[in-house]
Amino acid sequence: GENVEQHPSTLSVQEGDSAVIKCTYSDSASNYFPWYKQELGKRPQLIIDIRSNVGEKKDQRIAVTLNKTAKHFSLHITETQPEDSAVYFCAAASPSNAGGTSYGKLTFGQGTILTVHP
Amino acid sequence: GAGVSQSPRYKVAKRGQDVALRCDPISGHVSLFWYQQALGQGPEFLTYFQNEAQLDKSGLPSDRFFAERPEGSVSTLKIQRTQQEDSAVYLCASSLVTSGRWRSTDTQYFGPGTRLTVL
Predict the structure, then answer these.
(1) Using CA atoms, how far apart are residues B47 and B69, in angstroms rounded to an integer?
(2) Mean pLDDT on A42-71
(3) Mutate which of A30, A101, A107, A112 to disrupt the B interface (most B C-beta within 10 Å)?
(4) Cβ separation of A102 and B99 shorter than 8 Å?
(5) Which residues on adjacent β-strands are paired with residue A75?
(6) What share of chain A in percent tops pLDDT 70?
(7) Among A38, B46, B55, B109, which is disulfide-ready with A98 (CB 3.0 to 4.6 Å)?
(8) CA dihedral A34, B49, A96, A45 (to 10 degrees)
(9) Which residues of chain A does B50 touch, with a Cβ-Cβ cutoff of 8 Å?
């Protein structure tokens, strides 16, 4: 099955700096890569995702890059703010055919605790 | 509109008790997933429903875990004879899946989770 490795496990930056979190995956069939932000005691919330037919996607201060050949993808946050502090999870989904309809169970990385100091 | 909701938010059980955790997905969402999140870890897949059909239960850790979605909407995850190692947050997620073969994967929206503590 799919295996996702995420680094670093903790990341501390100063407000205004950039933060980069990297993930690798093992299943070459994976074609969907979401990133979730989870604050303490809260639900995981999708912040950005990328599908395998593109190499980069950007949404304001957040960007994700995907290298299918190397099987790795990265989250980039620019101009970090204290409210960006949270745990970030990457995930990968492989298409699984169930009853004729594709679905993708997510395999998550171990998480990165991001702390942005004012 | 309303997001995914789960109840109870917190559950304390004595070892050996049975528990039932409820998930209300976003209205109209076909797919429903259950994940288990241990402290300090990423969520791990338990089981998947497409409407009322349970199409993948490969992640259920033992036969003490049972999930159902009888009418294709609300789902219940039941754990029998709870053990201390069952202590975790149980997350439910739903997604809107359009029919058709090999469609791209849809976004999964998570509920707030149920924190289960087994004493």
Answers:
(1) 11
(2) 93
(3) A101
(4) no
(5) A21, A64
(6) 93
(7) B55
(8) 0
(9) 98-99, 101, 103
